[in-house]
Design brief:
heterotrimer; A alpha/beta (358); B mainly alpha (314); C alpha/beta (381); B: 314 residues; 71% helix; flat; C: alpha/beta; four-stranded antiparallel sheet; 30% helix
């Protein structure tokens, strides 16, 4: 219990401290040969303070992973247009040279991917892959690096780290591989860690171990963590602030307590009402959201979620309202992109923060 | 806003809502083959490949009309001297060979023979190879082992040796040449189709068909085989290029068609060898033809591979 | 449609008895030698009543999918019986088995992979009818296909389209329509929603429930997501390394899990409720799943179990026994754990005993709980 109180005491609002990462009006457009371009990310802004964990939540295709790749500068150059601003400790990353970015990646910012097997080089031992990072970014000698690598593996809970250094990725289990990747990500104590669905490929008991590890890291080192996930349960347990994304835009932002107790956007509410929960009895009806993410309309035409939305009205459409739906402040610490937000929480649960209603 | 307007507008969002979760409106579905063709049509590499291939096919088909002269007529034989062969001139745009025959006309007629050998031997090789591949891929077990060992034996005999032996067996003629090249293609197709079928046999849709109670023969021939064909189609296109090169190589070595009334690029290359020192262009022209037509088939094959790749399926 | 009169036999529709699936591990340069077996399913008994849903949960590698496939003979069982409506399916010859498949169908995890990309929906749905000589003439088949599409909530226009033209949820609807084309009695759904987007999962779960009600189907739902299984199942079985470790009516299992593994599994599932998430007790397990090629002796869970007691857990294989009505559990110490007479060790301690480590542990855990003897249960909050 004491752990989680310490956790909630961590800086909740970025205002007081300088943020590690500031993303402003980030847009990513993919253009493919002979096809109309796709706007994968459309004016996304958020920031993360040291020791803070934010969640980017949404379904496949909502742009959450593209956002993270854009921040890391890992998108391919060809066929991709990135606009906006991404600042790490005040330093602009967009448009920065390859060499500058490569220096930052690994040293000041690191990323953990969903599939630990394909993120590791299968032909090289774990030890070589970890020490490589240490030599490159911390200028360590071979021996020092090996010492440090063993220490890192130990810190992320890999048993018998010295033996593991000599093993190849396929010799490790999925959970161990993810730990090894996290160890590599942490090799230079980065200020920012981006985790893109780090537990999706893992079993629940292993997921619990990894989430615990991440939680510990953020608390211990003050690393800023951007957690990208589709799992609302993971968000509920880990993130301080949550940004819900749909069709490339942020549609709702709130602290996790507020968001789950009082979801305002019909999409957020719909997601919560449509996932079966472990603590509800057999046969508790689920209220699905109709259609699929394919039914989204372009934001220029109106709210992308409107076709699937039960609260949708005509003024959700640009041609009726005369303007697109803006992302506006919605009470203390909340932002919302919706003209007809939910007023009653669709799921059982008492609101933890009263008021804040406009 | 008036109530009336409001109500008509209300329909607008309802209409949108009603469309959610529906399948896209409009005509029939787009099958994989059709969507692959659409992608192919937009791919510049495919277009270049196709243009080259079609151009050569047209030249071969229209040879009698395109060729300025008879490819066998030794029109300028009198002007050929030891150490000097007349170059390009009025009526002979690419000059003549050491027997005084028009090079351009020979190249044009040669395309018939080269393409014919390429296509026939590839078709023969593909059919035979696919038959073996289906046998191995469909039955598996000991049938697979026997067929694949046979294919390994074929593969272990050097192509040239095989071609010579076949020429000896069947006599030196163009059919022997085609068969010799076809035999060297067999293992490639057999292995490719077998491998592709084995992996498709483990696929979920084959399992699903089994679970539905579909007969085994229907699963293998109706589902597994058609889905295993795309790498074979790609390979056939690429093999055409190899077959043309191989035919040229065998002709070059004197194992080709002995009938001199049918000009052929490989044979032209071979005879140009003797005069290489003072008439290098006689070797360059047929070589260029071989390279360009092989390139055309290769470009087409590569873009076909990309178009048929399920990763690009959308 | 033909409605074969089902035998009036009451009792369970499906009974699995001592089912084993062992995959040989082959090695060798010229001749493959069998050097061992992966015991994917190692002696499972279960029975499913008509019209009910049995949920099978477990982590990857526990054998739950293999069990489902072995019941349908998509994977050949090594030993054991599969009694479907009184007939032992496991010993049927190929052709009778093929006919039997009409009555037992499967819904796959990957809706795109399980549909032949070259077939349009019409041909996909008509195929099972042709395979079993059902459906009658062309107009009758066309009518049946329309009925099916309607039943799974797809428009008629879908008939001319190909699998790749649909969204994930729509594809799964096609997969379900295909499975119910031949009016089966049993439907085995292997991870039916795990490949789908969150907002779409509920649609498919609701559809499955609706079809069960309308057609009186019996379900075996295999899933790793405990929340999904709880939502849809009447009875839930939990698998670990090839065996059932606990089986109970869904609500009973979730309210009072008795097996240590079930408890750990349930405590690990994240719940979309921050208040609950912060206050929950978490049982972190140490280490990974042992290899099913070389399973631990005694109780297979003893290497990771926070309640392990020397040496009984290491030596004696626990049997599945009924601790409460219909609540089966295979743990020597289930009563003592339930009544709080045994307390769990932390993951670190389990790891220390087993010679593996798990690194950072729960926030709920006192920092220096490493006191006390190895065998003595230590207070764990």
């Amino acid at each position: 219990m004491n752990g989680s109180t310490a956790f909630s005491a961590a800086p909740r609002h970025a205002a007081s401290t300088t943020p590690v990462l500031e993303v402003e009006d980030l847009s990513v457009r993919f253009t493919r040969r002979g096809e109309a371009g796709t706007q994968a990310v459309d004016g996304v802004s958020f920031s993360v303070a040291p020791g803070e964990t934010i969640g980017l939540v949404g379904e496949s295709g909502c742009g959450k992973s593209v956002t993270s790749l854009a921040v890391m500068g890992l998108l391919p150059k060809r066929g991709v247009q990135v606009a906006g601003s991404v600042r790490l400790d005040g330093q602009e990353l967009l448009g920065a040279g390859d060499r500058a970015l490569r220096k930052l990646r690994g040293a000041d910012m690191a990323m953990v991917f969903q599939d630990p097997l394909s993120s590791l080089n299968p032909t090289v031992t774990i030890g070589v892959q970890v020490t490589e990072v240490l030599k490159e970014h911390r200028g360590m000698s071979g021996k020092e690096a090996t010492e440090e690598a063993a220490d890192l593996l130990d810190r992320v809970g890999i048993p018998d780290p010295r033996r593991r250094l000599g093993e190849y990725p396929h010799q490790l289990s999925g959970g161990m591989r993810q730990r090894a990747l996290i160890a590599m990500a942490l090799a230079c104590s980065p200020r920012l860690l981006i985790a893109d669905e780090p537990t999706t490929a893992l079993d629940v008991t292993i997921q619990a171990q990894i989430l615990e590890l991440l939680r510990e890291l953020v608390q211990g080192s003050g690393t800023a963590l951007v957690m990208i996930t589709h799992d609302l349960g993971v968000v509920a347990g880990l993130c301080d602030r949550v940004h819900v994304m749909y069709a490339g835009r942020i549609i709702e932002t709130a602290d996790r307590g507020d968001l789950f107790a009082r979801p305002r956007h019909p999409y957020t509410g719909g997601l919560l009402a449509s996932v079966p929960r472990l603590d509800t009895t057999r046969g508790t009806p689920l209220t699905p959201i109709r259609g699929s993410a394919r039914d989204a309309i372009p934001w220029a035409q109106g709210c992308a979620f409107a076709p699937r939305c039960d609260s949708g009205r005509d003024d959700c459409l640009t041609e009726v309202a005369g303007s697109t739906v803006p992302l506006e402040s919605d009470g203390a610490g909340r932002e919302l992109r919706c003209r007809h937000p939910l007023t009653v929480p669709p799921v059982a649960g008492s609101p933890t923060t009263p008021g804040a209603d406009r | 806003m008036t109530a009336a307007l409001g109500s008509t507008r209300r329909d607008k969002i309802d209409e949108l809502a009603a469309r959610a979760g529906q399948v896209p409106a409009g005509g029939g579905g787009v099958s994989l083959a059709r969507s692959a063709f659409r992608r192919l049509r937009r791919d510049p590499v495919a277009i270049i490949g196709a243009v080259i291939v079609v151009a050569f096919l047209l030249v071969a088909a229209l040879a009698p009309w395109l060729a300025p002269r008879d490819p066998l007529e030794q029109a300028l034989l009198s002007e050929v001297r030891q150490g000097s062969i007349p170059g390009s001139r009025e009526g002979f745009p690419l000059g003549v060979d050491q027997l005084g025959r028009d090079v351009l006309s020979r190249l044009i007629y040669g395309s018939r023979q080269s393409l014919l050998i390429g296509v026939v031997s590839t078709v023969l090789g593909a059919v035979a190879g696919m038959a073996l591949g289906v046998l191995a891929g469909a039955f598996g077990g000991w049938v697979d082992t026997v067929v694949m060992r046979f294919v390994d034996i074929l593969l272990s005999i050097p192509g040239l040796l095989m071609a010579i032996s076949i020429s000896v067996l069947l006599g030196q003629n163009q059919y022997a040449l085609m068969i010799a090249i076809a035999v060297t293609q067999v293992p490639v197709f057999a292995r490719l189709l077998r491998g592709s079928m084995l992996s498709q046999r483990d696929s979920d849709y084959a399992l699903a068909a089994k679970a539905l109670g579909v007969k085994r023969s229907r699963i293998v021939l109706g589902h597994v085989l058609p889905n295993s064909l795309s790498p074979v189609i790609v390979q056939a296109t690429l093999s055409l290029a190899t077959a043309i090169i191989e035919a040229a190589a065998l002709s070059f070595l004197g194992l080709g068609d002995p009938d001199i009334s049918r000009p052929e690029w490989g044979a032209m290359l071979s005879s140009a060898q003797a005069v290489l020192s003072f008439a290098p262009m006689l070797a360059v022209y047929p070589a260029l033809c071989i390279i360009v037509v092989a390139l055309g088939f290769t470009l087409l094959g590569e873009s076909l591979r990309e178009a048929l790749d399920p990763k690009f399926r959308r | 449609m033909t409605t074969e009169p089902t035998s009036p036999a009451s009792g369970p529709l499906l009974q699995v008895q001592g089912l084993q699936v062992h995959f040989p591990i082959r090695r060798g340069l010229f001749v493959d030698r069998t050097v061992g077996h992966v015991r994917a399913v190692d002696g499972v008994d279960l029975s499913i009543d008509r019209g009910t849903t049995y949920g099978l949960v477990g982590e990857s590698g526990c054998g739950k999918s293999t069990l489902g496939r072995a019941i349908l003979r998509l994977t050949e069982p090594t030993a054991g019986k599969v009694l479907f409506d009184g007939t032992d399916v496991a010993s049927l010859k190929p052709e009778p088995m093929r006919h039997m498949r009409r009555r037992m169908q499967m819904v796959f995890q990957d809706p795109l992979g399980s549909l032949d990309p070259r077939q349009d929906v019409e041909s996909l749905l008509a195929e099972p009818l042709h395979a079993h000589g059902l459906g009658g003439d062309k107009p009758a088949i066309a009518r049946r296909l329309r009925e099916l599409l309607d039943a799974v909530g797809l428009p008629e226009a879908a008939l001319r389209r190909y699998p790749h033209e649909f969204s994930g949820g729509q594809r799964q609807r096609i997969g379900i329509a295909r499975a119910i084309t031949v009016e089966p009695d049993l439907l085995i759904a292997d991870e039916p929603v795990s490949a789908l987007d969150v907002s779409v999962q509920a649609q498919v779960l609701n559809l499955l429930e609706e079809l069960q009600e309308r057609l009186g189907l019996t379900y075996l739902v295999i899933a790793h997501d405990l929340a999904v299984v709880r939502h849809i199942s009447d009875v839930v079985g939990v698998m670990y390394l090839g065996s059932l470790v606990e089986q109970a009516p869904a609500d009973a299992l979730y309210e009072a899990p008795l097996h240590p593994y079930t408890r750990a599994l349930m405590s690990a599932v994240p719940v979309p409720d921050p208040v609950l998430e912060d206050s929950r007790e978490r049982i972190l397990l140490s280490g990974d799943l042992p290899s099913p090629a070389n399973p631990p002796s005694g109780c297979r869970f003893h290497t990771r179990c926070p309640w392990r007691q020397e040496t009984r857990c290491d030596d004696e294989v626990p049997v599945l026994r009924e601790l409460a009505p219909l609540h089966l559990v295979s743990c020597h110490w289930a009563e003592d754990i339930r009544d709080g007479r045994l307390l769990p060790k932390s993951a670190d301690e389990v790891a220390a005993i087993q010679g593996v480590s798990v690194g950072p542990t729960g926030a709920d855990q006192p920092v220096d709980s490493m006191i006390g003897g190895v065998d003595e249960p230590v207070e764990f909050r």
